[in-house]
From TrEMBL:
Protein name, entry field: MiAMP1 family antimicrobial peptide
Domain of life of the organism encoding this protein: Bacteria
SUPFAM superfamilies per UniProt: gamma-Crystallin-like
Signal sequence extent: 1-24
Claim: Signal is one of the keywords in the record: yes
This protein's UniProt keywords: Signal
InterPro entries noted in UniProt: Antimic/Inh_G_crystallin-like, Antimicrobial_MiAMP1, G_crystallin-like
Length: 102
């Protein structure tokens, strides 16, 4: 009888854990202006170098993004993207790296 009750409890825990992990802020870098060309999604915690600088979209879903004008998040933070708001820019961007705060 205990096994029958334990299985639904474990399944519910797995669903809750995976549902929580599904939401993360994302920085989408586009090769060209106006969200054109190749793109890459950066959503890992910590430092990521940005390969494309034509335009971007930010989906703030819990983590903020600190933007740097140099690779590897070195130097001074140039701008911070909000953890609870989306943002975008259709024209070229000078940022070279992002630090997603988790």
């Amino acid at each position: 009888m205990k096994k029958v009750l334990l299985v639904p409890a474990i399944a519910a825990g797995i669903v809750l854990a995976s549902a929580g992990a599904a939401y993360a802020s994302q920085y989408v870098a586009y090769e060209g202006p106006g969200f054109t060309g190749r793109s890459v999604v950066l959503d890992a915690c910590g430092v990521s170098n940005i390969p494309y600088h034509g335009s971007y979209k930010w989906y703030g879903d819990g983590q903020s993004g600190r933007m740097y004008n140099q690779p590897n998040a070195t130097g001074v933070t140039h701008f911070e993207l909000a953890s609870n708001r989306n943002a975008e820019q259709r024209t070229p961007v000078g940022w070279k790296s992002i630090f997603i705060v988790c």
